[in-house]
Specification:
mainly alpha; flat; 3 helices; about 80 residues; single chain
């Protein structure tokens, strides 16, 4: 790509390069789905089994957040 001659051109150039980099490193949805299906087949995963949601939260070490987490996921999953 040619060198930008103005700040606006430079900003446009940076935006375009950023998008090009993103699309180079992120396959389209169809390809991601194909890759996921390949991993499922390779690992012999049971696709009929009900999935269990992963309990992920950004817990702050406060009385309120820990009490809420215990209520929702229990002490054993908190590592306590």
């Amino acid at each position: 790509m040619a060198h930008a001659s103005t700040p606006v051109d430079k900003l446009s150039q940076v935006a375009i390069e950023g998008l090009q980099g993103y699309f180079r490193s992120h396959p389209p949805p169809e390809e991601r789905l194909k890759q996921a299906k390949e991993v499922i087949a390779e690992d012999g995963l049971d696709v009929t089994k009900q999935l269990t949601p992963l309990a992920v939260s950004s817990l702050l070490q406060t009385k309120h957040s820990l009490a809420s987490a215990r209520k929702n996921i229990g002490d054993t999953q908190l590592g306590r």
